[in-house]
Amino acid sequence: MLTPTRFLRAQWTSTLHLPKSAFPARPTPASTALYLKRCTDDLYSWQQSKRYDPNCTTSSRPETFVLHDGPPYANGPLHVGHALNKITKDLVCRFQVGQGKLVNYIPGWDCHGLPIEIKALQAQKNSGAEDGHGKAVSRLSAVQVREAARQLAARTVRKQMDGFKEWAVMGDWGNAYKTMDKDFEMRQLSVFKEMVEKGLIYRQYKPVYWSPSSGTALAEAELEYDENHTSTAAFVRFPVQASKAFRGEFQSINWEDLSAVIWTTTPWTLPANKVIAVHKDMDYSVVVISEMPKSHLLVATSRIEYLESILGQKLDTVTSGILGSKMAGNLKYRNPLHRRNAKPHPIIHADFVSDASGSGLVHIAPGHGMDDYNVCSELSIPAFAPVDDQGRFTDAALPDQPDLFQGLSVQDEGTNAILGYLKGIDTDYILGTHVIKHKYPIDWRTKQPVIVRATEQWFANVDGIKSGSMQALEEVNFIPESGKVRLQSFIEGRSQWCISRQRAWGVPIPALYRTDTGKHEAAMDGSIIGHIMKVIEKRGIDAWWTDPEDDPAWIPEHLEGSYVRGKDTMDVWFDSGTSWTLLPEKSNGPVADVYLEGTDQHRGWFQSSLLTHVARQATSEQVAQGIAHQSQTSDNKIKPPFRTLITHGFTLDQDGRKMSKSLGNVISPDEIMSGSLLPPLKHKKQKGKGNSKNEINDPKPTYDAMGPDALRLWVASSDYTKDVVIGQPILQAVNTALHKYRVTFKWLLGVLGLQTPGFDSFDLRTLHARLLDSEIPLIDRIALHRLAQVSKEVHTHYTAYEFFRGVNTLNKYIAHDLSAFYFETLKDRIYAGSITDRLSAQRVLGVIFWELCQMLAPVCPVLIEEVWEWVPKPMKDISEHPARMVWTPFDLPVADVGSQKLNRQIEVLNEVHTAIKAAQERARAEKKMGSGLESSVLISLPGQVNGLTADLLNKSREEELAGIFVVSGVSVVEDEGLETTLKELNPAWNFEEPFDIHATEESKHVKTRTGSVLVVPPNQHKCPRCWRFVAPEPEALCQRCDEAAEEDRR
């Protein structure tokens, strides 16, 4: 035994094996840049190199995994919505790399369309730019507009790409696609050509959503809805004429002054009125206003009471019981806005008429509503819309006085003018007006109201491919499942897709228009498009606008007459919707394994991708039949472009509000990475140095900058299937978790770096194979068992794309199982134990370290790259990088892995440990103890306890249990002997807590019983080396430390 001299006491610290690591508390910008390249460009290139490995046969080459990138708009700075989208995609890709897949992720950008065009023009306007001829930018030519938009898109793509890379998003950046690339545009035109050849594209004069603020037609996917829009609604009466037979049946009616009452929320559409609709099965009445007994009004009987409330007057019934079926075909009416000599219009039946609102009679304007258009088309009544591209009345709105309404904006001054005119002419045709608040469509770009207006537009026939699209969706895995119903409902409710836009920045619709017949007829078929594509291939797409409009090179030789090129461009959803053409076809399934975008893409990119992909596969015969009778063989079955469709929600502030500049609640990704949204770090005062006056008055704040991993961990921690909330509390939790990761790795790196004979030459990948059943202590067995459970659980969550569940599992494991429990039990073994003790602990911690690296690699790649940099060199030299290894869930290489026995032992230890902690806290509250080592524990068991509890809590395990509970000693006694033991010990204090002993498989007849723990002061002396109270006398080493110190001396 070593004599405890003063010299030896001074040297005892040097005999401890304390882990040391210079791993920093937080990343530095310089190191982050280095690690970013390694975990993005280098990792992606490495895994792609397997595609071309000459040693790989076709059968051994890794399976390909394709995540197809839905292109963001190249029109502005990145925001947290971008981060949620791109980082979630990166989590998917990195996990698949970890599964040995060859990942194909090519980022893309949507570069055409109105948002970019408007922003480019605004930038030119703000700079006071002219077109070189003294013309303001508002009068720039189409070519100049396109050049400005192209430059803006190119600049934005570069900036956004740099931002995505800073978030550690890996991908094939060198081959990123842009919808304005020539190759992409030619692919798009090729799909369009096929759809034309199959009869899926047509031109028609019919109502479409029109944005006066943008000056173009819109598809439904380009609409948003203002829930609080206000409109002026009006009850208007139109003079009625009746057939002789009808007059004879209802003689009490004043036929000289009978009016049909209609209700409209869009009075500006009244000039386009062509029909009044009733429902054949509804009951109608003729009523009079008490103050106007001779003016008879025709309304639905069920709406009389409502009409009275709006007009504020009593209505007396003259005649009731008039069925709509009698009125349809027997009554006509005159529109006072039409020419005085115009023919009267019919009153007809329509199925959509109801008595849920209005008067029960519906004003029909086929030029301003699709339902109206369909009803009138069946009666050969043409659409009429006297409204121009800017949403202003033309001179056709009031033929008898063409200048009266011309040029007035229909939705404000035009509405007022219509109502004023109808009220002021010979007879007051306005019964009443009121303001209503209702849901109304707005342009998603300008946020201004849209109108429905009949124009000549190009359409895709969705009806022809609807059935095939719906069938294809049956093969898709939806996350969340509600996405299936949402996408199906959008497709089911759509019969057409307006694909033409009246803007310059886009891919031209390759149509020619004849000019020598006066009809401006469109010519477009497969051969014409094929010819135009050859010219574009040779001259470039801008030549469509720069060449003289009658340039014969664009006109196929077989066309007779004179033609000019059209000016319409394609809907940008058609652009991005054909991006699947960039992917190689797969014989056994969809071209992409995953599409992942926001929930708004059900009506956007998801839908346009599906429709164009189905259109490419469908035959002309299938289109003609609506693909209703497609063969179900695997060879020609209609396939969707995606195998799995993942949808994420929107980002909201911590109060659940959308982010906007006006609310001042916008959070940028840079703020999250820099930590500037959190309180600044406190400055540490330097000892012996005074602070200057400037430092005191104007200290520079230093923030807890955790870099891209902070942004990524926020994304990975969020349940993206719902709207995702972000704010200071959430970001604080993220930073706390990141610091926990770093502290954990710092300690593990320190332990791995301890010089223990036989350890530093282990390959981390195969370290688990060294763990033999006979050499694993119980606590290590428990730790490995928990690691296996957590690894399997995290892997399962990642596989199901539920990253937030995996991260939550990891955080709990690191904080509770490792830091709060297992690491605490190991410190004494590692710091003060023998070589054998330390070696066994290092082996287990090496396995845990390796598994943590693999579990966190998809989430915090920069951290894992940094951690790997600090792995001891001998170990790193023979180990493969964890991000480049196939990750399969860890499995404990011992016989009782996952057994009920081990699970039961864990339950028992948890029960006892909880009771010990509770008793210790009571002792601390009364200042009886500080560290857990300043206590010993008596475990009292009731008699006849057997089975697992008896095997675990017995005298042979007392020393092992003391290490597990981090106390100086454990004594196991039966209830009967507890009193005797206490008398022998005569502790100065004790604190008792009960714990439950549950029935086990071995003793089912035993019900839940109660044991107890008593926390008491140790009855031996403090060892100056390990600080446990197990030394036989003051200043003496305990036996374990005595032997360990001797071992180190050798």
UniProtKB/TrEMBL annotation:
Coiled coil: none annotated. PROSITE patterns: AA_TRNA_LIGASE_I. Keywords: Aminoacyl-tRNA synthetase, ATP-binding, Ligase, Nucleotide-binding, Protein biosynthesis. SUPFAM superfamilies: Anticodon-binding domain of a subclass of class I aminoacyl-tRNA synthetases, Nucleotidylyl transferase, ValRS/IleRS/LeuRS editing domain. Signal peptide: none annotated. Residues 45-725 form the Aminoacyl-tRNA synthetase class Ia domain. GO terms for molecular function: aminoacyl-tRNA deacylase activity; ATP binding; isoleucine-tRNA ligase activity; tRNA binding. Pfam families: Anticodon_1 (PF08264), tRNA-synt_1 (PF00133). One of its GO terms (cellular component) is mitochondrion. InterPro entries: aa-tRNA-synth_I_CS (IPR001412), aa-tRNA-synth_Ia (IPR002300), Anticodon_Ile_BEm (IPR033708), Ile-tRNA-ligase (IPR002301), Ile-tRNA_ligase (IPR050081), M/V/L/I-tRNA-synth_anticd-bd (IPR013155), Rossmann-like_a/b/a_fold (IPR014729), tRNAsynth_Ia_anticodon-bd (IPR009080). Residues 780-938 form the Methionyl/Valyl/Leucyl/Isoleucyl-tRNA synthetase anticodon-binding domain. Residues 674-702 are annotated as: Disordered. Residues 681-690 have a biased composition (Basic residues). Its EC number is 6.1.1.5. Its main location: mitochondrion. It comes from the Eukaryota. It is found in: Mitochondrion. Belongs to the class-I aminoacyl-tRNA synthetase family. This is Isoleucine--tRNA ligase, mitochondrial. It comes from Glonium stellatum.
